[in-house]
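For the sake of transparency, this paper describes our internal protein records without simplification. The remainder of this section carries one protein's record, kept here as part of the documentation:
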Amino acid sequence: MTFLSIDNISHLFFNKDSTTEALDSISFTMNEGEFISLLGPSGCGKSTLLNIIAGLINQTEGEVLLQGKRLRDQEHKIGYMLQQDYLFPWKTILDNVMLGPQIAKVRNEEIELEAMNLLEEVGLTGVEDKYPNSLSGGMRQRAALVRTLINEPEILLLDEPFSALDYFTKLKLEDLVSKILKTYQKTAILVTHDIGEAISMSDRIIVLDRQPGKIHQIFEVPIELRNERPFLCRRHSKYQTIFEKVWGAMNVIEAGTATIESGGRHETE
């Protein structure tokens, strides 16, 4: 059974003087454990779509279905990682990580031990009693990842979580996040402007046209690339071929000459 269905999602933003169409008839499905990236020009509705899936805003039309049932009708856990880590500066790293269990009133020694193990797994051994201002940007994002994972999310939403980091740290975190998500078989959607990041981390890439956001083209990443670490993926012989195809699709959109087909075109390598 399909795990997640985005079914004909459209969204309008209203203000006093005008209406803005942000999304137009977005539809795709995901299997459990799949990783999809959303690419497209600024303003095409990528983050809006994540906010709809997260339940932060209600779509104008369409449905988000989890295992065939409306997501908003169910109790569910969705993890959301943003460009900024949003760690509370007055709380220790462990207290920041345990924020979800604390709010849910389920914080206990067992969950704290799990958090410590996750911190160790992401290379943050010994920082649990430190405060965020004593950590680098990359370390803070690792802590934010653990804070997200400790809540055992069914779906992980990633809104450009590496874009504020230097390139070296960004590549290391791509490898780490990819490894963690595969280990825990998490279903994930990444919003990014980085074609290389999308290719190296994803099973599929969905390219959205400019506002209103609609599916322009879907690319399936070759299995040979999916089996590599993101860093090594960029060195694979098949990487450049799909990079040029995705780049070409983005160029068509930027040139304003995109011809949109219902449901988008689908390419496999």
